[in-house]
Specification:
Radius of gyration: 23 Å
Oligomer: single chain
Shape: globular
Structural class: alpha/beta
Strand content: 15-25%
Length: 429
């Protein structure tokens, strides 16, 4: 029996909707649902750090029965569940996407990111990149955009910062292991076998097996990959332990799992994206995997690259060298030997090998730029700085294909406003 099924058994008949609400992160940007869980058990709300699944696991049966009879709580519960059901299960044309883009209502946009900042109870983010990705999913849900997202489920996530009084103010990095039973996630099953879904990826001489989980963000499905399973070698289980951990080789392995794994996962789920949106260079190996799939079908490399470029969007973020992953060429050659044999050494390395003046290697940002038809920065100033950083690359692309060359554009970072307003402010809107 899954944790969710256990919680359903535990709930009084008239409060079973709490479980559905706890397993959808929709609750975290709606005033009434936040108040509902907080009021259910204030001490648990504090001790679980505002985690509804954790609250429902720890709350006593007596407290649940008491709250089921509480008039104020039950009225708030009915109001919240009605709002939730009307929002999540409403397929009407009133949604912004359907009204604005009726001809695109049946497409699917795949969104790939290394991290997602959705709520502090789901520690799979570290900073701005993740917060942007999390807001992107929330806003897509509110607008009704046909999005599906893929990322990682980390066992420890990003570290918690502590300033040590004993080390003259130095930072201490504290990693806490996460209990997956406390998270709003459910294991994904293979549609063909009805067994837990496992994706496999070749990493040099080893095969890594990837388990898949799903969390829901309003209307949006977010699939999270996890290598910490017994069938894997110990050094491969660690790949999804920490966000941005390890040496260069481990980062390469992580990014192969993210990019290649995402393509194979969506294919396994029979999801055929019309557009692939890559959030930063971490997930750009997805383009190489898609090129490989086309070539297996008999498509020549140049045409396969063109086909991938047509429906790939790439967002670059950090305007400093440290923000762009660059892998040693010999490491890429070791891990991608099969692709290099199929594509050709020179053509393969032309996708990412580049010298930006601070070291030659296989640059993931360059890979994103060369395999996408739309490339954007995250502000006008960032666009200008990035153009200067990659100036020689733009010239190369323009000279090679003037007709299809599209210069860098920008989309200024926004925020999902309901996530940043206090509950008091929301009540006056």
């Amino acid at each position: 029996m899954t944790v969710r099924e256990q919680l359903m058994d535990k709930m009084p008949l008239n409060l079973k909707g709490l479980v559905d609400l706890a397993y959808n992160l929709w609750w975290c940007w709606h005033v009434d649902s936040v108040e509902l869980f907080k009021f259910l058990d204030p001490p648990l709300w504090r001790s679980t750090k505002s985690n509804p699944v954790g609250i429902l696991r720890e709350i006593s049966h007596e407290r649940l029965e008491e709250m089921a009879q509480d008039d104020y709580f039950f009225e708030l519960y009915k109001k919240t569940i009605t709002l939730y059901n009307n929002d999540i299960h409403n397929k009407d044309e009133h949604l912004w996407w359907n009204k604005k883009n009726p001809e695109y209502k049946d497409i699917t946009i795949a969104y790939l990111s290394m991290e997602y900042g959705l709520h502090n109870s789901l520690h799979i983010y570290s900073g701005g990149l993740g917060v942007l990705a999390g807001d992107y999913l929330k806003e897509s849900s509110d607008l009704g955009a046909p999005l599906v997202a893929v990322g990682f489920l980390y066992q420890e996530g990003f570290f918690i910062q502590k300033i040590s009084a004993y080390r003259n103010g130095w930072q201490e990095e504290i990693y806490n292991e996460v209990d997956f039973d406390d998270l709003p996630i459910e294991e994904v099953f293979d549609p063909d076998t009805n067994q837990p879904l496992i994706i496999t990826i070749n990493l040099k001489s080893s095969v890594v097996f990837v388990r898949v989980w799903k969390t829901t963000v309003g209307r949006i499905a977010l699939y999270l990959m996890d290598t910490n399973i017994e069938i894997n070698h110990p050094w491969l289980r660690d790949l999804t332990d920490r966000l941005y951990g390890g040496n260069s080789e481990m980062r390469l392995q992580q990014e192969m799992v993210l990019g290649i794994g995402a393509v194979r996962l969506l294919k396994k789920l029979r999801i055929e994206p019309s557009v692939w949106h890559l959030n930063e260079g971490h997930c750009c190996f997805s383009s190489i995997e898609r090129i490989r799939e086309h070539m297996i079908k008999g498509v020549e490399f140049d045409e396969a690259l063109s086909m991938v470029r047509k429906n790939t969007v790439f967002t670059t973020h950090t305007p400093v060298p440290a923000g762009h992953d660059i892998f040693p060429l010999n490491l890429i050659e070791l891990y991608f030997s099969d692709n290099i044999d199929a594509i050709g050494h020179e053509r393969f390395f032309s996708l990412g090998a580049y010298d930006l003046g601070y070291g030659k290697g296989f640059n993931m940002t360059v890979l994103g730029i060369k395999t996408s038809s739309c490339i954007n920065g995250v502000s006008k100033l960032h666009k200008d700085v990035t153009e200067k950083m990659f100036g020689s690359l733009w010239n190369e692309l323009r000279d090679k294909d003037k007709e299809r060359f599209k210069p860098l554009t920008y989309v200024t970072n926004g925020v999902h406003i309901p996530s940043y307003l206090s509950n008091i402010t929301k009540e006056f809107l």
